[in-house]
Design brief:
With about 375 residues, this protein is of the alpha/beta class. Helices cover about 40% and strands about 20% of the residues. This is ACT domain-containing protein.
């Protein structure tokens, strides 16, 4: 028999010692065959004891690995409570001011002096308006009284508009709707499921159709019908409700009434609308029927702030969906409804997280 190659012997040496040494007396060719490798149709472990040893070792190691990699329920609960406690102490700082050097250094240095931790920071310098925008997510502080005076002083020096808000604070949002309810239903579900962190104290509509839907979510529903002759009175009621409930934002979830310049001015920068196309195309009634007649290949939706100029406010978000010649007007409406719901929800969510800053006729969106 020719000598065994060292390269063939070495990989099997440990296996031979561990499994077979205790069972073999003299060294023979049969033992060598077993250790260097069986014929293709044979199994590597011919010994029942060897198989059992492998199974026991493998299972015990796998169980140990799983046990070590997965935290216990107590540990998970402790980590969750710790994260929630830290989030309660987190805040957003948003600001805008004339652009100049040293703004980031000044703001971050001020936070550092207060022993606050910067968790996330986004900034933008607009070369056209020469303005600087920044959003800072910082923590962890239960009391910001010591920050107020130095922040006000810095704002005066930099001619800076700023806002500080706790992350856990839910802004109050008034939803307004007419007879088309997909956007309203989508927003209500997102709030209920925790996807959208806002508080909805009431819903206003010029039609009674969605009263039961509002009541199913435990939200007061105000039916305020409007005609050309009663528009001033109806909008006065809306402004009274806004003041009474300390509303931070009004969302027109397919509210099919043109707001008066008075309401737009008093709530400037605090009203978001969803438009059923890319602005300014396909204005007026039945936009998807217009799109069908023109044979469009892409439909979309636009979420924007409301101004006195109809559908000309600063755009927050736009999204599209591809369509084709085989789709009916009804199918276009259904596809468009999905896009509208997604776009409006995104705009409201980003606004609620202090990610949307006004920049003249445009917006800066830190998403």
């Amino acid at each position: 028999m020719p000598p065994v190659s060292r390269s063939l012997w070495s990989p099997c040496h440990n296996l031979f010692n561990r499994v077979y040494t205790s069972h073999l007396r003299p060294f023979n060719c049969r033992a060598l065959t077993l250790t260097t490798g069986p014929a293709p149709q044979q199994k590597i472990f011919r010994n029942r004891q060897s198989i059992q040893f492998y199974r026991t070792f493998h299972v015990s190691q796998t169980a140990t690995s799983k046990h070590r990699s997965q935290p216990s329920d107590t540990e998970e609960l402790s980590l969750k409570k710790q994260k929630e406690k830290m989030a309660v102490d987190d805040h957003y700082l948003t600001l805008s001011c004339p652009d100049k050097s040293g703004i980031v250094y000044a703001v971050t240095g001020l936070l550092a002096k207060q022993n606050l931790t910067i968790l996330d920071l986004q900034q933008f310098s607009d070369p056209d308006s020469k303005k600087f925008f920044m959003r800072v997510h910082f923590g962890h502080a239960t009391d910001l009284s010591a920050l107020q005076e130095p922040l006000q002083k810095l704002a005066s020096e930099l001619k800076m508009d700023y806002q500080v808000r706790a992350v856990q604070e839910k802004p109050k949002v008034l939803l307004m709707v007419s007879k088309i309810g997909h956007c309203l239903n989508d927003l209500l579900f997102r709030v209920k499921s925790g996807q959208l962190k806002i508080d909805i104290p009431l819903i206003v509509s010029n039609h009674p159709e969605f009263k039961e839907l509002a009541e199913s979510y435990g939200i007061p529903f105000h039916h305020l019908p409007v005609t050309k002759d009663t528009k001033v009175e109806q909008e006065t009621q809306i402004l009274d409700l806004i003041s009474q409930h300390k509303i931070d934002l009004v969302v027109l979830a397919r509210y099919m009434q043109v707001l008066s310049p008075r309401l737009c001015t008093e709530m400037s920068g605090k009203i978001i609308n969803i438009h059923h196309s890319f602005l300014p195309s396909f204005k007026g009634a039945k936009p998807y029927h217009q799109a069908y007649e023109r044979g469009v290949k892409i439909i979309g939706a636009t979420a924007h702030f409301v101004t006195a100029d109809l559908d000309e406010g600063p755009i927050i978000e736009q999204r599209v969906a591809r369509v084709d010649h085989a789709m009916s007007p009804k199918e276009l409406v259904e596809e468009g409804s999905n896009v509208e719901s997604q776009v409006l929800a995104a705009a409201v969510k980003w606004w609620s997280e202090q990610r949307v800053l006004l920049n003249g006729a445009k917006t800066v969106v830190f998403n």
